[in-house]
Amino acid sequence: MAIFNFQILLLYSSLSLFFCFLFPQAHSLSFNLKKIGPQHQNVNIIVSPDANITSEGLQLTPNRNDTDLAYRAGKAQWATTLHLWDKSTGNLTDFDTHFVFVIDSGGRSNFADGLTFFLADPIGLDIKPAFALGLPINRDTFMGTSRFVAVEFDTLRNFPPLDQDNIRPGPHVGIDVNSLVSNVTAAWYCNVTSGIENEAWIRYDSSSHNLSVVFTGSTNTTRVEDTIHLIVDLRDYLPEKVTFGFTAATGEWSENHTVISWEFSSSLQIKDTNKFPLGALVGIVVGSLVLVGKASKESDVYSFGVVALEIACGRKPFDFKVPECQMGMVEWVWDLYGMGRLLEAADPKLGPDFDEREMERLIIVGLWCAHPDHNFRPKIRQAIHVFNFEAPLPNLPPKQPTLSFFPPPLNSITTSSGTSQSQHSSSTYNAYSSKFTSSSTTSSLTPECPKKLEE
Ligand SMILES: *[C@@H]1O[C@H](CO)[C@@H](O)[C@H](O)[C@H]1NC(C)=O
Ligand SMILES: *[C@@H]1O[C@H](CO)[C@@H](O)[C@H](O)[C@H]1NC(C)=O
Ligand SMILES: *[C@@H]1O[C@H](CO)[C@@H](O)[C@H](O)[C@H]1NC(C)=O
Ligand SMILES: *[C@@H]1O[C@H](CO)[C@@H](O)[C@H](O)[C@H]1NC(C)=O
Ligand SMILES: *[C@@H]1O[C@H](CO)[C@@H](O)[C@H](O)[C@H]1NC(C)=O
Ligand SMILES: *[C@@H]1O[C@H](CO)[C@@H](O)[C@H](O)[C@H]1NC(C)=O
Ligand SMILES: *[C@@H]1O[C@H](CO)[C@@H](O)[C@H](O)[C@H]1NC(C)=O
Ligand SMILES: *[C@@H]1O[C@H](CO)[C@@H](O)[C@H](O)[C@H]1NC(C)=O
């Protein structure tokens, strides 16, 4: 259930016990940028040195014919690191990524060099301009100058030992482990002269250590698919936390490298006790409890609610080790709410050291935010008012409404940052007020459901 589009930070000023407890999990990373655009630049995707994001997508190397296209290199990294594995437990994550991209020489038949999807040590990652597909490579040894694993979409065949003869006519896909010499390669019919759209799916299976790549191409205008894989225990080659994204480079010959969409998910939740969120934040204060989340969109409000409940109850959204009726956290808590036994949901590990009124608010607001019908979810500002005892608790139905319950889609990550965040939430709050009024009169599901709250 990879719904966590944001990370949450909780601080508790008076009880250090609570503080320790409140950091227990780093959530699996998941995002889907269906159309990469300038709004993602340096918010979700950090670009350097020659990369840029335009309305056409992520341009890893310059694509404007009024600039020098030769000898350029670009890198684009996701804004947060990926927790790949955990030293204390040995746990290793699965991940899956899919992207649509174009490599286009604008009709020229001499083109180079290609792009990569990479995972790398965030420390000391330094890309060399116009060399090695933008990867951190030593020019003399062809070995990594920092640790990386990459899938290369290389449009230029080099001489052995860099590339073997079996990849004629030239363009090829390969998997590189800390070296420019690929561990495995296959020919790639990418049609750079016509700049066709290609797709790749890269998957890592942590139990079989199988890093596999499915990629498309075109032969005689027919779309084809091919695959390569490498069995590699990523723990042997990469640190626990990695940066990940794309690189590309041009040489004497050039081409443009554009990533149009990018989807990523890692499945495993790894314990993490000192992770801080990056990007825009919204703060919630419950007494001396400060809850900070990145939550301005409906799907984020939902995620926020689930995280609030996870914290309050000290459990996962789905737990297969408890009786069936308790497996789904939201439904279970909602039942307790309906029976007037809400505090039984509170995490027993918290002992008596919490304020029952704060706990009640945390749980009820959590349920409200996790309402199956997004029309009934509060805006984050309303949730804050309730947390702060500035607004009454919402009146939720005694059972979790059972309308077609789909968790919200994996939307693209919230893109606002800094001060624009608060402007964003205040405008959506107003919009919500009128929307909410109309939906509450038309829906029969939750007649008593949250009343419009005063600012
Ligand atoms: C980056 O792209 C923007 C359009 O999104 C454009 O205005 C800007 O000039 C580009 N920067 C460079 C260095 O090409
Ligand atoms: C650059 O692009 C413009 C508009 O797309 C075109 O008119 C011009 O001929 C191009 N210049 C070169 C040198 O290709
Ligand atoms: C992580 O590792 C621990 C200890 O080896 C194991 O008990 C646990 O099931 C693992 N968690 C996952 C999600 O694989
Ligand atoms: C890539 O470059 C070519 C010119 O070399 C240009 O015609 C094309 O529009 C560019 N593609 C993108 C997506 O920028
Ligand atoms: C690795 O994954 C690929 C692609 O799914 C599959 O074809 C291959 O058989 C797998 N190899 C092993 C050893 O699991
Ligand atoms: C490349 O794509 C163009 C346009 O679809 C097509 O005319 C051409 O035959 C393709 N070339 C190859 C080698 O497939
Ligand atoms: C493309 O078509 C030509 C002529 O029909 C054929 O000789 C060639 O083998 C085909 N190429 C591929 C990669 O299928
Ligand atoms: C991949 O190749 C590098 C050297 O190029 C080697 O050190 C490494 O052991 C290889 N890894 C695998 C998993 O084959």
Give a written overview of the molecule:
This protein has 455 residues and is α+β, with helices and mostly antiparallel strands. The protein has six helices and 21 strands. Strand 5 and strand 6 form a beta hairpin. The protein starts with 8 loop residues before the first strand and ends in a 13-residue tail after the last helix. Residues 1-25, 271-289 and 404-455 have low confidence and may be disordered. Bound molecules: 2-acetamido-2-deoxy-beta-D-glucopyranose (8 copies). Residues 38, 52, 54, 62 line the site of one 2-acetamido-2-deoxy-beta-D-glucopyranose.
Number of helices: 6
Average pLDDT reading: 76
First and last CA, distance: 33 Å
Residue stretches low in confidence (pLDDT < 50, at least 5 long) are 1-25, 271-289, 404-455
Write the element-wise H/E pattern from the N-terminal end onward. Answer: EHEEEEEEEEEEEEEEEEEEEEHHHHH
Overall geometry: elongated
Q: Roughly what percent helix?
A: 10-25%
What is the alpha-carbon Rg in Å?
25 Å
Give the total of beta strands.
21
> Bound small molecules, which ones?
2-acetamido-2-deoxy-beta-D-glucopyranose
* Major β-sheet profile: 8 strands, antiparallel
Broad structural category? alpha+beta
Strand content: 25-35%
Question: Which secondary structure elements does this structure contain, and how are they paired or packed?
Answer:
Blueprint: E1 9-12, H1 16-21, E2 25-26, E3 30-33, E4 45-49, E5 52-54, E6 57-59, E7 73-78, E8 82-83, E9 95-104, E10 114-120, E11 148-154, E12 172-177, E13 184-187, E14 197-205, E15 210-219, E16 222-231, E17 241-249, E18 256-266, E19 270-271, E20 282-286, E21 289-293, H2 298-313, H3 329-338, H4 356-369, H5 380-387, H6 420-442
Antiparallel strand pairs: 1-21, 2-19, 3-18, 4-7, 5-6, 6-18, 7-17, 8-17, 9-14, 9-18, 10-11, 10-17, 11-12, 12-13, 14-15, 15-16, 20-21
Bound molecules: 2-acetamido-2-deoxy-beta-D-glucopyranose (8 copies).
